[in-house]
Amino acid sequence: MTHGTLNSTAALVTEYPWPKLAGLKVLDLACGSGRNGFWFLAQGCEVTFIDQDLSAMASLKHDKAQLWQWNLEDGSAPPLPIEAFDIVLVFNYLHRPLFSQIAASIKPNGLIVYETFTWQQAEIGHPRNPDFLLMEHELQSVFANWQSLHYFEGRLSDPVSGAQSLKAQLIARKPSQ
Ligand SMILES: C[S@@+](CC[C@H](N)C(=O)[O-])C[C@H]1O[C@@H](n2cnc3c(N)ncnc32)[C@H](O)[C@@H]1O
């Protein structure tokens, strides 16, 4: 699968064969420009955008969008709400202490959609800090008891710029109980 630039919706989002999305509650965690959450907003979802810096989205006025400007790492933010979201998106962000909160924030039968860099990325560019790089099969191990709907680990090519990156992608369904 290809992937997009940080200005366009990720290919994992646009190419996945989603079921009906309208009305679902979606969280775009560490959303940046909100490029992925916006896509779900356009499908009729209610989208919560969280980032430490939401200035890029300051002008957004949409009755189905919530903006929470939270620092997720310094202890100042409340915990993510429990079983609140049908789908949680995490792209290009890794803070391992949040894994359990992310999992808990998803409703039973809800989906995690995760894409970020693996340790191999350090061999070709940034990020290089191991804290920001997934280990081999790490997402599969974190969501081990979830139903895996899509998994990829390897080299991705930006369809626009041709830039290469080494990433893992997971879409997995939370158990019903
Ligand atoms: C590489 S960008 C990815 C943005 C978006 N997910 C995307 O793929 O387009 C990483 C994002 O994580 C956010 N971030 C980094 N540290 C954070 C923190 N401690 N709390 C909240 N957001 C943070 C940054 O502000 C930035 O928007």
Automatic annotation (TrEMBL):
GO terms for molecular function: methyltransferase activity. CDD domains: AdoMet_MTases. The keyword Phosphoprotein does not apply. Keywords: Methyltransferase, Transferase. This is SAM dependent methyltransferase. Gene3D superfamilies: Vaccinia Virus protein VP39. Residues 27-111 form the Methyltransferase type domain. GO terms for biological process: methylation. It holds the Pfam family Methyltransf_12. The keyword Membrane does not apply. InterPro entries: Methyltransf_12, SAM-dependent_MTases_sf. It comes from the Bacteria.
